[in-house]
Amino acid sequence: MKILVCISHVPDTTSKINFADNNTAFDTAGVQFVINPYDEFGLTRALWIKEKQGGTVTVANVGTNVTDPTLRKALAIGADDAIRIDAEPTDAFFVAKQIAALVEENGYDLVICGQESIDYNGGQVPGLVAALLNWPFASPCTGLELDGTNATITREIDGGKEISKATLPIVIGGKKGLVEEKDLRIPNMRGIMTARTKPLLVRPAVDAEKRTTAVEYSKPEPKAAVKLIDKDNVEELVKLLHEEAKVI
Amino acid sequence: MATDLFQSPDYYQLDELLSEEHLLVREATRDWVKKEVTPIIEDYAQRAEFPKHIVNGLAEVGAFGPYIPQEYGGAGLDQISYGLMMQEIERGDSGVRSTCSVQSSLVMYPIYKYGNEEQRKKYLPKLASGEFLGCFGLTEPDHGSNPGGMITNFKDKGDHYLLNGAKMWISNAPFADIAVVWAKDETGRIHGLIVERGMEGFTTPETHNKWSLRASATGELVFDNVKVPKENLLPNKSGLGAPLGCLDSARFGIAWGAIGAAMDCYDTALRYAKERIQFEKPIASFQLQQKKLAEMITEITKAQLLTWRLGVLRNEDKATSAQISMAKRNNVDMALKIAREARQMLGGMGISGEYSIMRHMMNLESVVTYEGTHDIHLLITGMDVTGIPAFK
What we know:
Chain A is α/β, with parallel strands linked by helices.
């Protein structure tokens, strides 16, 4: 079983978000980066599969060398090897082309992505990878069981669950439920030392056009101060809801 | 306790002096502390109980002997990594850090440095995995700052040594499986002996009613005609320098650990000061509060620089005992003062178990005393610069 887990390098959820270059780029100054949480659930699931039925877990990222610490952490957690496709991840199509090319070359049985990355929240890469490979695809997955080459996939849908079956190879977009938060692994010191000698291969990107361009970013309006109105002054409340909040 | 929101300050961009691996070690240890220590520690400290169940977790994350080579069960990390781990663990609690310091620097270190290959193979993997918990016996009821005056002794009885005496203020003693004990031979020379629980005449009564390190077990080691097998003597170093070498390693870890406690107090006080409203504005807007916070971050930053440099020297095997003394003394004193100031900033809330500050403050009263008191370390620096010992 050869498993590829795609790892996005994203700002920690507690980071303060700012924009640079006239609001056309994310300002990375002072920001801590982590493994995309959705990917971390997938990585842990992949390690469970490996531990139960054997195989290898490879982690991959499309990015410049700033993402190496994130891949190294995945190695410290337990992945066998890492591959970084050395390019700016300009848009979802570009990234998906890189991942698909890697899969075609190395022949994985299972590709696990997060349902989306928590930075730009595009959620397109896993589906695009599946389309480019012409493989079955399911997202967002909260469960994955394997029996030989038969996969049973659980997906959350409105008001319930959907159970579907597919034959490997497949691509999934995963989330919490593949494993729970308590199952996520903290690298231990021996893992960190072992990660030193695990391969982190850097390979050039394949040709792929960028199909979308972000024109501008903006932050949500800051929350306004709360206005307290005397409980007897209903008229004032109605007036403000009508004229200021414009909800009635 | 409220959610652990801790973020470490880095006022001088000192992270740039650390390697990618150092940052991963720190992050992993911090994540572990947030998951396993913060949620339970206040309760255990209040009940004055050692959280025995975290021994396995400490072993799993690699907090026992991180710098001991992998062939003996350690991780083979460098000294800065060890320091960063102690910083993060003491950020959680000085008592938990004490357990790690004792296991790593006072039990595994002497067995690795002064033991023979059989002793290393017999004990180190079990100490690294947490199967064995160890303790270190140097201080005696009548010999604290003057360990060379110890009266614990052993006599050569042909096929074994006969050990007699008592040790006091021993971290981990009540639960320890083995003790590295320092005792004088018949010529008065100090040697290290590995004493195992279960040896006849060896008991470890617990020390109760502490107001400090309440989540760490402290006790005595009593030796009443204990027969110690001859193969349990550490053969490769003797004299007072042997235990002092262990203390160098432990004090180095404490110098880092104290920064963790200080950071936690500062981080808590800063967050509280920005949220606590008095006179219609956050108390952080008042000059007296800003003075406290500004002095705290200044002292933390200075201590970080001191320990980082000490870590580089120690990695190069160039750090002197006196340099380590200076860092231990400076940083623990710094942390204790910050804990007291931070406690005041939180007003009445500062004395409650809702916040970690008072626990740190009480813990640090031990840390400023053990492993060489605050005053003795000053005299070590005094001796180092003048060449004249003032304590003899």
